[in-house]
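User: Can you help me understand a structure? I only have the sequence.
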Amino acid sequence: MSAKKAAVKKADKGNIVVDLRSLGAEELRAKLTEQRQEVFNLRIRHATAQLEKTSDLKSAKRQVARIMTVLQEKE
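Assistant: Let's start by predicting it. Here is the structure, written out as tokens:
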């Protein structure tokens, strides 16, 4: 991966966190519930060999962690 692509990916992650920090605690809780449901669905699809991009599962788990971190900062 080139340095330019890595910088773009890192900038995208920063934008995601900034977007999360702009939400209120209740909105974050709702988003966390949705994201956990998405992780569950991805796990089921992975177990039944229907998930083509297994990296989606890792990304969804990281998004849950990001949301939980921002929620902890708010409380």
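Now, to help you interpret it: The radius of gyration is 14 Å. The mean pLDDT is 83. Let me know which part you'd like to focus on.
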